[in-house]
Specification:
- The protein has a four-stranded mixed β-sheet.
- It is mainly alpha-helical.
- The chain folds into two domains: about 20-170, Helix Hairpins (Orthogonal Bundle), CATH 1.10.287.1490; about 175-240, no CATH class.
- The radius of gyration is 40 Å and the shape is rod-shaped.
- The chain has helices at about 5-80, 85-170, 175-185, 210-215, 235-240, and strands at about 190-195, 200, 220, 230.
- The two termini are about 20 Å apart.
- InterPro entries: CT398_CC_hairpin, Oxidative_Scav/Glycosyltrans, Zf-RING_7.
- Keywords: Coiled coil.
- This is Zinc ribbon domain-containing protein (DUF164 domain).
C-alpha cells in the first residue's frame, strides 16, 4: 500500500479517536449531573415545604390573635349583659355573643386543621431531607468514580495525541493540507474504506476503474461522488486474497 495512504489512514483513525474523547467525558459528567439535578430538585422541594410550614404557622398565629380578640369581645358582651335595660338590647347582645362563639369554634377548628397540616408537612420535610442526604452521599461516590474515569480518558487521549504528533512529524505537508481540506467538511469521515465496491462515506457505488485503483492501493484515490479519500476495506482485502 502507498505509504502516504497508510499515513492518511493512521492519521484519520487518530483523529476519529480524539473526537470521541470529549463525548466520553461529557457522558461521564452527565452521569454526575443526573444526581446533582435530583439533589437540586430536592432542595427546591425542601425550601417550598419550609415556606408552606411558615405559612401554616402564620395562619395559626393569626387565628390565635383572632381568638384573643373574640375572648375580649365575649368578656365585653358578658359585662354588657349585666347592664341590659330592655329585651331588645338583650336579644342584640345574645346574637352578637352567638356569632362570636361560632367564630371561636371556627377559629379553633382552623387551628386544629393547621396543626395537622403542619405535622404532615414536617413529616414530608424529614422525608425530603433524608432523600437529600442519601443523594448527596451518592454524589460524593459518583464524583469520585467520574473523576477517575475522566482521568483515565484524558490519559488515553494524551497517548493518542502523542502518537498523532509523532506521525505528523514525518508527514508530507502537501498530503496533510490535502487531508485537512477534506476533513473541514467530512469531519471524521475524510478517509473511509471501500466495502462491496461502495464508498463508506457517501455509500455510493464506485466505478470499476476507481475500485481497481483502490484495491491496488498504489495511489491516493478520491471518491468521484463525494471526494473522500478511499482505501481498501477488510472485506475487499479478504476477497482479493481469495
Amino acid at each position: 500500500m502507498n505509504k502516504y495512504l497508510q499515513d492518511l489512514i493512521a492519521l484519520s483513525k487518530y483523529d476519529t479517536s480524539i473526537s470521541q474523547f470529549d463525548p466520553k467525558i461529557e457522558n461521564q459528567r452527565a452521569k454526575l449531573a443526573v444526581f446533582v439535578e435530583t439533589a437540586e430538585a430536592l432542595k427546591v422541594s425542601i425550601n417550598s415545604v419550609y415556606l408552606e410550614i411558615d405559612e401554616l404557622k402564620s395562619k395559626r398565629t393569626k387565628n390565635n390573635i383572632h381568638l384573643a380578640e373574640l375572648k375580649t369581645k365575649l368578656d365585653q358582651i358578658a359585662k354588657k349583659n349585666k347592664e341590659v335595660t330592655n329585651e331588645k338590647e338583650l336579644k342584640a347582645l345574645q346574637l352578637e355573643e352567638e356569632i362570636a362563639k361560632e367564630q371561636v369554634s371556627f377559629a379553633n377548628e382552623e387551628i386544629e386543621r393547621f396543626d395537622k397540616l403542619t405535622v404532615a408537612k414536617e413529616d414530608k420535610l424529614k422525608e425530603l431531607q433524608e432523600k437529600l442526604k442519601t443523594e448527596e452521599e451518592d454524589i460524593k461516590e459518583v464524583k469520585v468514580a467520574v473523576d477517575n474515569e475522566i482521568e483515565a480518558i484524558n490519559k488515553d487521549r494524551n497517548i493518542v495525541y502523542d502518537k498523532r504528533n509523532e506521525l505528523l512529524g514525518q508527514f508530507d505537508k502537501k498530503i496533510l493540507t490535502f487531508y485537512e481540506k477534506i476533513k473541514r467538511w467530512a469531519k471524521d469521515t475524510a478517509v473511509v474504506p471501500v466495502k462491496q465496491q461502495a464508498c463508506y462515506g457517501c455509500f455510493m457505488k464506485i466505478n470499476d476503474k476507481t475500485y481497481s485503483e483502490v484495491i491496488k492501493g498504489e495511489e491516493i484515490v478520491n471518491c468521484l461522488h463525494c471526494g473522500r479519500i478511499l482505501y481498501k476495506g477488510e472485506e475487499e482485502t479478504t476477497a482479493t486474497e481469495a
